[in-house]
Amino acid sequence: MFTDGRLHNGSRMIQPNHMFDTPRHDLSNYRQFTDNSITTTKYSLLTFIPHNIFYQMCNKYANMYFLFIAVLNFCPLFGSYTKFLGLVPISFVLGTTLIKDGFEDIRRWRYDNKINTKTCHVWDRDRQMFRKMQWKHIIVGDFVHVSNEQEIPADVLFLRSSSENASCFVETCNLDGETSLKQRVVPRQYVSFSQQGSDFTPTRFNGTIFCEPPDPAIYTIRAKIEYQTGYFEIITKDNMLLRGSRLRNTTFIEGIVLYAGSSTL
């Protein structure tokens, strides 16, 4: 862990979206960072057939052999049977594999759609309240409200808890296979947001977050919150709620999205 607050070149600067009176599609966070949708499909409707056949030909040398034999059969010097009969084996192999891959890609598309259309409550600057929003529309810099037993929709900096000790518990078996609950805590500067009688709203958070690009090691993060006074606070893995983990034994949590979609840790 680093303690001097210095980050490497290429670090991301994130400011809460509620600080800017502008449509979402004009926000800096919207333009700079990926949205929260995920796509695991290999093909689109337009590219499915050509890409699939190209992939089969390049990765299965037996297909190249069958194609060579079929082409060779069109040459009068080498043809030994009906010209188009030589296309039957390669057509059968390519066709059956194409159908199989098509069904698999449809299954992936359905799974993506199921995840992307899950809902979460996101802070609406204009209405000054949390409103329901599909996961795919969440962007970096959004404040989210997650209730007990719900999945965390993105990689979130934990800022408020229903628990007065400013902590929560999450289950991370979807990420690392561990079934034991892990405790996460709010950064020290924001512990008061979780205390009884707190008048907290996301508009009270006006710090600027600096963080490095996503790290393949899911529990590694180098980030800090910087304030106008010049003071900064280090963000650790214990302050982060990762996408796919599930909130347990805590009525609700609130926090700001640092990484979304394909950029999640």
UniProtKB/TrEMBL annotation:
<keyword id="KW-1133">Transmembrane helix</keyword>
<feature type="domain" description="P-type ATPase N-terminal">
    <location>
        <begin position="29"/>
        <end position="84"/>
    </location>
</feature>
<dbReference type="InterPro" id="IPR023298">
    <property type="entry name" value="ATPase_P-typ_TM_dom_sf"/>
</dbReference>
<dbReference type="GO" id="GO:0140326">
    <property type="term" value="F:ATPase-coupled intramembrane lipid transporter activity"/>
</dbReference>
<dbReference type="GO" id="GO:0005886">
    <property type="term" value="C:plasma membrane"/>
</dbReference>
<feature type="transmembrane region" description="Helical">
    <location>
        <begin position="61"/>
        <end position="79"/>
    </location>
</feature>
<dbReference type="GO" id="GO:0045332">
    <property type="term" value="P:phospholipid translocation"/>
</dbReference>
<dbReference type="InterPro" id="IPR008250">
    <property type="entry name" value="ATPase_P-typ_transduc_dom_A_sf"/>
</dbReference>
<protein>
    <submittedName>
        <fullName>PhoLip_ATPase_N domain-containing protein</fullName>
    </submittedName>
</protein>
<keyword id="KW-0472">Membrane</keyword>
<keyword id="KW-0812">Transmembrane</keyword>
<dbReference type="Pfam" id="PF16209">
    <property type="entry name" value="PhoLip_ATPase_N"/>
</dbReference>
<dbReference type="InterPro" id="IPR032631">
    <property type="entry name" value="P-type_ATPase_N"/>
</dbReference>
